[in-house]
Amino acid sequence: MDDERLNRQLLIEGWNQEALDNAQIGIIGDDDSLASMYLMSSAALGINDFVVIAPSLDERLINVAKSVNPELKIKFVKGNYTSQNLNCLLEDCDIITDVSHYGLANKLSLNLGYDKYKPVIRGLSDEEGFKVFTYERGREWSELESIISQPSFPNEHFDDPVLDMIASGILLEETKNKLMNEKISNELIVYNREPLADIDKSDNILVIGAGALGNFVGLGLGYSGFENITFMDPDVAEITNLNRQILLYDGVDKSKSATLAKRLKEFFGINAKSREQYFNSSSRIHNYDVIFDCVDNFETRIVLSEKCKAKNKILISGGTNVDAGQSVLYNPDVDDKTPAELLGLYDILGQRKLENYTRERASCVYRPDPSVIMTNQVIGGFMVDAYKRHLSGQTIENIFYDSKSDTRT
User: Fold this and answer.
1) 144 and 226 co-located in one domain
2) Got the DSSP string for 234-273?
3) Is there a domain that residue 197 lies in?
4) Residue 32 has what pLDDT?
5) Reduced to 3 states, what is the DSSP secondary structure of residue 150?
6) Pairing state of beta strands 228-232 and 204-208?
């Protein structure tokens, strides 16, 4: 089953699953969601062995990780990394991922990395964004202080699980690259935004597509406190989906949208619903305040753009491939171009007539496109963050993510 589950990433040219299978990762965390997000996504990718030092883990995400990856081993030490005496727990780890928010742990992890020639992947988020940097001995850097938290000891800190989702995807991309001897970023990876205002979370939200993007958009909306979410997707889950559609772990041969809605209702107690149908030009959207486009084909994306323009609806459109993706917010009150126009989808499809377009289901078994979890969680997180920023009255920049870039955008 594991080979089937990981099939989509095994199709990637040069992919070295053995390097992931045999790795042990040390995680230094805080009392928030970032360490758990990173562990869950890493487990879905096929990393099996973790040592975690943190005050707590999110049991919902850890249960997802264990359900997706039956080979998972976690040595969990409950507490903070505040002493070199804990180094013995991390000495056999191939990589240390430090996502803590206090300076003593950061300095201890960097010192361990220096002494033992271990890479340390550092991730830090706050209300103004996040930073990710990979440190290894011989890579001394004058701005290293910028990734060390100011508090010397554990204390309360701002946490946004949506930023954690994005940051953990980038952290995992760096982890994968290091384990496979591929290029890591030469620069500090930074995402900056203004702090969010208090927002109304009672909007009626439609998420079209309950695959990988839909999973992470749903997770981000649930963590953010949005209460009314409908997922539209008629497809059933397959084993090959589970390397990235992590919330569907018990939904093989069952409806994706129904399984996802059920899972988020269990996690967050929200009003999550399912519409098991494809979106087309006759689909009704008048009851929804915002539409999230998580579909996997250009034709439906064009129909969505045209429908939202005609009905004056906010549309947040996301798309991914193995290495890249984009998040585009369309506000009909201020934007001239829809996502389909902005992304040139009409030219790509050769001005194909769409009035009578009907989406035909094609199983992943017969459409074996390579796919991984990281770009989907990064773009899914950016889509949710774009909506929260929109509701806060901020100006939104469209995100074009490239995992092979030093800056990622």
Assistant:
1) no
2) --BB-GGGTTT-GGGTT-BTSBHHHHHHHHHHHHH--EEE
3) no
4) 87
5) coil
6) parallel
Other Cβ atoms closer than 10 A to 123? 25
What pLDDT is attached to residue 348? 87
> Does residue 408 lie in a domain region?
no
Q: Residue 297, exposed/middle/buried by CB under 10 A (0-12, 13-18, 19+)?
A: middle
Task: Single out the residue of 302, 335, 339 nearest to residue 317, CA to CA.
Answer: 339
List, in sequence order, every residue forming a beta bridge with 252; answer none if it has no partner.
Answer: 237
Domain with 212 in it? 204-402
Domain count, the chain: 2
Residue 407 within any structural domain of the chain: no
The pLDDT tens digits for 121-167 are: 999 888 899 999 999 998 876 667 788 887 777 777 788 999 999 99
Say yes or no: 366 and 240 in one domain. yes
Contact between residue 370 and residue 12 where contact means Cβ atoms under 8 Å apart? yes
Residue 393, CB half-sphere, CA atoms under 13 Å: how many? 4
Residue 174 neighbours by CB under 8 Å, 6+ apart: 121, 132, 134, 184, 185
Share of the chain above pLDDT 90, in %: 85
Half-sphere exposure of 12 (CA within 13 A, CB side): 17
pLDDT for residue 364: 43
pLDDT tens digits, one per residue of 242-274: 999 999 999 999 999 999 999 999 999 999 999
Nearest to 128 by CA among 174, 166, 173, 160: 160
Q: Provide the Cα torsion 391, 397, 402, 405; round to 10°.
A: -120
Asked whether residue 244 falls in the same domain as residue 141, the answer is no
User: Which pTM value belongs to this model?
Assistant: 0.95
Specify whether 211 is located in the same domain as 263. yes
